[in-house]
Automatic annotation (TrEMBL):
Name the record gives this protein: Ribbon-helix-helix domain-containing protein
Length: 74
């Protein structure tokens, strides 16, 4: 298992951080590239739509998982 790495990002003018394993981070970067978004823009989009009782790191992991599921069912 890959070690969890903490990363920082600025969304809507404030700095926040999230912790992800490298495979999740790499997939998040790939998703942003596919959608022609910056990583910060993708993280901000996920942050805006996540349930308030879900932390950002979990929301990012779930987004990657949902993206992978859609890709395999297409």
């Amino acid at each position: 298992m890959s070690a969890v790495e903490k990363r920082s990002v600025t969304i809507r003018g404030h700095r926040t951080s999230y912790s992800l394993e490298k495979p999740f981070y790499d997939d998040l970067v790939a998703i942003a590239g596919t959608r022609k978004l910056t990583l910060a823009a993708l993280v901000a989009e996920i942050d805006e739509t996540r349930p308030r009782d879900t932390n950002l790191s979990s929301a990012l992991r779930l987004h990657v998982l949902e993206w992978a599921k859609r890709a395999t069912s297409a």
